[in-house]
Amino acid sequence: MTLTKQDIENLESCPWCGSRNMAEWGRPVRKFNSVVCGECKLIYVRNRLNGVGLKKYYATYLSDMHQADTQKNVQREQMYKLEFDLINGIVGDGKVLDVGCSAGLFLDLFKAAGYECCGVEFGSEAAEEASKKHNIHAGEFS
What we know:
Blueprint: E1 8-10, E2 22-24, E3 34-37, E4 43-45, E5 47-49, H1 51-59, H2 61-66, H3 70-91, E6 95-99, H4 105-112, E7 116-121, H5 124-130, E8 135-138
Parallel strand pairs: 6-7, 7-8
Antiparallel strand pairs: 1-5, 2-3, 3-4
């Protein structure tokens, strides 16, 4: 997947308060630059994917990015387990909504512990995979 300039939109003002006062924040990640608003302190990606770019990027994100690196997959599983143990130790049972659930691997831990699980996933490939195991809303989380 190759992104083009037509897939990117550049924000000239804060999407929360409208201020044009911003400063670089952190390091660029995959050529995306985060900034912090000088007024409300919101941190956001200034040169972000537009609607077309989002669909293009996330169409095959699961196979191209999320599951492509074996070492990161092992690290992600360890992270999910640590986060599950923390949350489960506080909550104990109930309902879980995972926004940006990818293939539903984090939800798997909750489902195995008896939680009622739902997810939201923008990427069609990942949403299809997650929906094999969980109640998934495919698309944007409004």
